[in-house]
Amino acid sequence: MQTYIYKSARGCDLHADVYQPVTDSGPHPVIIWIHGGALILGSRKMLRDEQLNRYLENGFVVVAIDYRLAPETRLEDLLTDIHDAYAWIRDNGPRFFGADPSRVALIGHSAGGYLALMGGVELVPRVNGVVSLYGYGDIIGDWYSTPNTFYRQEPIVSRENAYSLISDVPLSTSDIARRPFYLYCRQHGVWPDEVTGYDLKNDAAAFDRFCPIRHVTSAYPPTLLLHGDCDTDVPYQQSVDLAAELSRHGVEHELITIGGGDHVFDVDTSQPQVRHAIDSVMVFLDKHLGK
After folding, report:
1. SS3 229
2. How does pLDDT run across 280-290, given as a tens digit for each residue?
3. Which of 30, 66, 29 is nearest to 47 (CA)?
4. Residue 31, SS3?
5. Is there a contact between 255 and 244 (Cβ–Cβ < 8 Å)?
6. pLDDT tens digits for range 91-111
C-alpha cells in the first residue's frame, strides 16, 4: 500500500491509500472507495480487509480516499474533493500505480454511498459503475430533516455540546468522538442544514443539487444498490426509491435487499446473504470494468 496526498485545501492534506492487485499485468481497472460517517466523521482506513482483498484478488486497483468533513467544510466544497480525487487518479494513476483511467467505479458505504451516487451525477467523464451500500439519494426527506425517533431514544445532545466537538479549521479524518454531533443533527432534524450551510425552511431550492435522485438521466452509470430492509440509520426506502428512478430512466441497475439487515450489514460476513451480496459486487465490477 502506498499513501499519496491528492490535494491540499486550506492547509488540510487529503490522502489516498492505493492498493495494487496481486497480478503485475496492467493497466488495471480502478475502484475509488469512499468511506461513510454521515460526512461528519470517519476515514479511508475504514475499508475492511476482507472486502479489500476480494477487490485485489480480482485485479482491481483500490484507491481509498479521505475527504474534508462537515460542518467545518460544507457539502458543496466537500464534493469538490471527490471531483479532485477522480481527476488526480485519471492524471496520475497510469504512471504511479498502473491504473486504467477509462475503467473506474465508485464504491461507497452509507454517506460514502451517497457521495458515490453524487459522483454518478457529476463526474466527467462518466464513471463505469456506481456501487452504493446502504447509501441515499435524497438528503432532505423527512428521515433526515425532521427529529429522528430512533436517535431520540438516546440522551438529547444540545447544540452547545455538539459544537464543542467542532473545530474552526478543516479536517479530513475523525474518530467516533464526534458522534454526539451527528446525534445532535439526527435528534433535532438539522443534518441537511448543518452539512450544507443552507436553511432548508427558507431556501429549499438550494438543496436540489445535492439530491442525486433528482438528477438521474438515461446517461447515469450502471448502478448496484445494497441495503438492509431493517436499517435504523438510512431507511431502506432510500434505495427502493432510487431503484425506481433508475428504472424510470432505463438505467441498468440492481437492488440487492438484505432481509433483516441493519445499517452496516456487511460487517457480519458469516451470513450467507451477506456473502452473496459481496459476490454480487464482484460480478457487477467484472461486468462493467473487466480485469
Report:
1. coil
2. 999 999 999 98
3. 66
4. strand
5. no
6. 999 999 999 999 999 999 999
pLDDT of residue 198: 96
Contacts of 74 (CB under 8 A, 6+ apart): 195, 196, 197
Task: Report the amino acid identity of residue 285.
Answer: L
Q: Coil, strand or helix: which one is 142?
A: helix
Cell numbers linked to 63: 484507491
| Residue at 186: amino acid letter | R
Q: What is the DSSP letter of 281?
A: H
CA-based torsion, 5, 126, 71, 239: positive or negative: negative
8 A C-beta contact, residue 80 and residue 100: no
One-letter amino acid of 67:
Y
Kindly give, in sequence order, each residue whose CB lies less than 8 Å from that of residue 101, ignoring residues fewer than 6 positions away: 30, 89, 90, 93, 94
- Using CA atoms, how far residue 247 sits from 107, 244, 270, in Å, is 20, 5, 32
Indicate the pLDDT class of residue 81, thresholds 50, 70 and 90: very high
In this prediction, residue 268 has a pLDDT band, given cuts at 50, 70 and 90, of confident
pLDDT above 90 for 26: no
Residue 18's DSSP bridge partners are 2, 63
- For the chain, domains (ranges, CATH) are 2-139+214-289 (3.40.50.1820)
